Amino acid sequence: MIKRVTILMLCLLILTGLTSCGNYATEDSGNKITFYAIKNWYSITEGSSIWNYNKHCTDSGKIIEIVEFETAEELKNKLSTELMSGGGPDLISADCLSAAGISCEKLIGQGCFADINEIIEADTSQDKINLSDYNENALQSGVINGNRYFIPFYFMPNFYVASQQELKKYISADTKSLSYNDLIKINDKINEEQSDKVITSNADGYLWSYVYDNVDFLNKTYSFDVEFSKTSEKLKELKSSGNEIKEEIFDEFVISPYLIYEYCAEIEKNGETARVIGKPSINTEVLSAQACDIYFINKNSKKKQEIMEFIKFALSEKEQNNVTGAEIEKYDNTTSYYNGSYFPINKKSYKTLMNNAKEIKYLDDTARVSNKTSEQLENMLAQISDYQFPQSTNYMTEVGSELINDYVNEKISTQKFTESLKSKTKIYMEE
Question: Residue 325 — left, alpha, or beta (φ > 0 → left; ψ -120 to 50 → alpha)?
Fold first, then answer.
């Protein structure tokens, strides 16, 4: 299998590789759309939606003015205070809220964001957004308690790629989506065979995923029962490669169809059958994806219609083609992020991307994927029904990070781990 950087490394690449910024706030920002961000944060750097929009925009009243903060704590204090007092920036991104340790779910519950449906309905322009032009299931991720608080611009499927021949050594060959028990079975089999293989490079992260799967942040519910304790005890023993280079059963870095097909082409080159399978989840009957590039509109903003021009631009076929690399002529796996990433929610752009991806050559421009593989991926993507709101990273910071570290390193028992999760999660939900 091809080895690739992990998602964490991708984040570092995005954060450090894109460095140019433009259209920053000045003292005279009263007529502009305001946006808060940590200094040099990737959502304001070259190639981001805001950067591309400002470069395109010719109306000074619709330019997005960026107010930068030196630290996450500074941003958190400023934003929290202003939102609670009826102020704050016009435009707010989920990424910047996460970086500042502010819960999107809690702000939604406090009524801080505008209902985009109302803004669309009030739009009298000729280019008014027609929601039927976009992936309906993906759009639903932004509808919470009947209000549309955001429209995700892109998504990433929660998929893995593996060799069918390798996979059926461990689990049923027709498994559509992995369960956490599947991971445990695979790990047990690896240990039994004393194999040098590993599930993935970051197996430690599965315990985190399992915790998140048992918490509903929007409805403020959680379930850490006896079954949770038993499964957690097994998950913390999963075999991971760490910093060593070992053969991984699953390729998990699937930010674009190009990268998925690159993995598949390598498997087919070895005379095996490529298999796309859903990532581990509690509900294995449902295929899911992560909603990406999410922006909220401040309920207090007086620039709501102006902000819609940014949203229209970001959802346009041309911009979505550009960001996802829907029309690239050659794929380079060493610069895969810059070639294009994500899957677009614009239906026309999505069709262009998927058609182009199956025609492109992979493995240094030497091989195309089989029709069977492209049909398999397209069928899996069509079955995605759960487009998930991004995980609450401040829950990780406030509740679980130290707790899980202590548990994995045998500093606390399973009972202590579960009881602490219950009590800390309860406090988190009630704050």
Answer: left
- Which of 252, 253, 241 minimizes the C-alpha distance to 197? 241
Q: Which residue has the tokens 């695979």?
A: 186
Distances (CA, A) of 198 to 32, 166, 207, 211, 238: 52, 12, 16, 22, 9
Q: Which two tokens stand for residue 267?
A: 């498997």
Compute how many other C-beta atoms are within 10 angstroms of the C-beta atom of residue 237: 13
Q: What is the pLDDT of residues 320-371, one digit of tens each?
A: 999 999 999 998 877 655 567 899 999 999 999 999 999 999 999 999 999 9
In 3D space, the residue among 140, 82, 89, 81 whose CA is nearest the CA of residue 114 turns out to be 89
Secondary structure of residue 412 in the 3-state scheme? coil
Of 100, 147, 422, the residue nearest 297 (C-alpha): 147
Phi/psi at 111 (5° precision): 75, 35
**Distance of alpha carbon 246 from alpha carbon 3, whole angstroms:** 9
- Contact indicator for 93, 294 with CB cutoff of 8 Å: yes
Residue count (the chain): 431
C-alpha span between 147 and 409 (Å, rounded): 43
What is the model's pTM? 0.88
306 or 83: which carries more pLDDT confidence? 306
